Amino acid sequence: MKLHEYQAKELFACHGLPVPGGETAETVAEGLAVAERLGYPVAIKAQVHAGGRGKAGGVRLARNRAEAGEALEAILNMTLRTAQTGEQGLPVRQVLVEKGVAIRQEFYLSILPDRASGTMLIIGSGEGGMNIEEVAARTPERIARIHVDPLAGLQPFHVRRLAFELALSDVQERSFFDLMTGLYRAVTENDLLLAEINPLVFTADDTFLLLDAKAEIDSSSLFRHRDLAALRDDTDRDPLERKAARYNLNYIRLDGNIGTMVNGAGLAMATMDLIKRAGAAPANFLDVGGGANAVMIRHGFGILLADPRVRAILINIFGGILRCDVLARGVVEAARATAVNIPVVVRMEGTNVEEGRRILADSGLELINAVDIRDAAAKIAAMAGRL
Ligand code: GDP
Ligand code: MN
Predict the structure, then answer these.
(1) Which domains, from first to last, does the chain contain?
(2) For residues 373 and 278, is the Cβ–Cβ distance under 8 A?
(3) Closest CA to 325 of 289, 298, 358
(4) How many angstroms separate the CA atoms of 219 and 260, rounded?
(5) Is 215 helix (H, G, I), strand (E, B) or coil?
(6) pLDDT tens digits for 26-67?
(7) Half-sphere exposure of 230 (CA within 13 A, CB side)
(8) H-state helical runs in the chain
(9) Could you confirm whether 184 is annotated as catalytic?
(10) Looking at 33-37, 184-188, 197-201, 375-379, which range is the least confident one?
(11) With contact defined as beta carbons under 8 Å apart, do 124 and 163 qualify?
(12) Model pTM score
């Protein structure tokens, strides 16, 4: 679960980290009131779940009321398109108005669990800011990576090494230990999958400040962070993904046009490979889970049918806990409720498969039965050729 910048800053401030003062606003008038209270200059920043806002015009500095009004007007009416938002962009509903800061140096700093090495990975660079991707691509040696054993935790030598790699001055190094300790604790205590500060700035009055902040919380840990769960803002999320989440379906939108509904993440991955190999592309990942019931099947199928890009559907279910007759009834109900005008291939195997097949055959619907996974692939391949 992603947090907005202002939420991430509040979270980090609770761990003693220095952030610029500011408040959110949803209208120009509200924004101006905040700016007047803070005093100029102010930074006005779009609050959307995507980075790269600065380059896309989503972050502006204002030196007076007139500039602030203009910036607020522009940003609050903007659909932000950045490298991270996709083509359709994200409408800006909220801005953060912050006290403007005189920057002396911009650093990049992030902490994330690194699955490959089983460690907490700290990434830092003395060349932070809006061009960090270019720095990483052109001069990777300017990016420091430090692995921290999660059981031993962050140690002074990690911080000293990072300070050395970032070529910090004596003044900077003095407050760096507290900063790193606070950030590391913020990550571990809140089960963050990512904390990214870009830029961490060293200001004209010689202090560090988290000028930007990104935080992503492990959704699986929300049961033990009730306060953080309340920070969820789904308005930026794909509408079909949001709908799927309401019914406990694991749905992720992809680029292709073959809708898929599968039970079990492993079988779902294998099914997507199968579709790719057949020369087509999946429109989504949808794992209805091992214990899906007819209602979940109906909603899952409904979500696939609601996607205008989907030209054919492949249902691949192994009936273990989920019985094939239950699946078949869910599919038939959903198909009856919606006028299905695209081909649907069903491959199922397992408990009560005979009854399941009979329900599909008797439904009067034009469902294409696949006898096994190979047959399903062949049928989807044939269809992909015709799409
Ligand atoms: P991002 O582009 O989405 O990562 O948004 P950031 O919050 O990182 O802002 C982009 C850039 O705006 C930063 O890298 C800074 O250079 C600049 N910026 C943001 N706030 C201030 C500020 O208060 N003062 C100054 N001088 N620059 C700022
Ligand atoms: Mn940034």
Answers:
(1) 21-99 (3.30.1490.20), 103-229 (3.30.470.20), 239-386 (3.40.50.261)
(2) no
(3) 358
(4) 24
(5) strand
(6) 999 999 999 999 999 999 999 999 989 999 999 999 999 999
(7) 3
(8) 5-14, 28-38, 65-76, 132-138, 156-165, 170-189, 226-229, 239-246, 265-277, 294-305, 324-337, 353-362, 373-386
(9) no
(10) 375-379
(11) no
(12) 0.77
Which of 133-142, 221-230, 232-241 has the weakest average pLDDT? 232-241
Closest C-alpha among 139, 174, 171 to residue 159? 174
Which residue type is seen at 215? A
Which residue type does 97 have? V
Look at phi and psi of residue 50 and say left if phi exceeds 0, alpha if psi is from -120 to 50, else beta: beta
Task: Quote the CA–CA distance of 118 and 147 in Å, as a whole number.
Answer: 9
Cα separation, 380 vs 276, whole angstroms: 10
How many helices, marked H, and strands, marked E, lie in the chain?
A: 13, 18
138: how many CB neighbours lie within 10 A of its CB?
Answer: 9
- Specify the DSSP element, H or E, that contains 99: strand 95-99
Instruction: Report pLDDT digits (tens) over 3-23.
Output: 999 999 999 999 999 999 999
Atom nearest to 129 CA in ligand 1:
14
Catalytic residue among 98, 106, 127, 196: 196
Contact 122 CB / ligand 1 (< 6 Å): no
Q: Which residues contact 106 (CB under 8 A, 6 or more apart)?
A: 127, 128, 129, 199, 200, 201, 211
22 lines ligand 1 (CB under 6 A): no
Per-residue pLDDT of 253-263, as tens digits, reads 998 999 999 98
Contacts (Cβ under 8 Å, ≥6 apart) of 258? 275, 280, 281, 282, 283, 310, 311, 312, 313, 314, 380, 383, 384
Nearest to 84 by CA among 236, 194, 307, 258: 236
Sequence length of the chain is: 387
Backbone torsions φ then ψ of 180, nearest 5 degrees: -65, -40
- Whether 98 is catalytic: no
Any residues with CB less than 8 A from the CB of 159 and at least 6 apart, and which? 176, 177, 180, 181
Ligand lying closest to the C-alpha of residue 109:
2
342's tokens? 């695209």
pLDDT at 4: 95
Rounded to the nearest integer, the mean pLDDT of the chain is: 92
Q: How far apart are CA 239 and CA 235, in angstroms?
A: 8
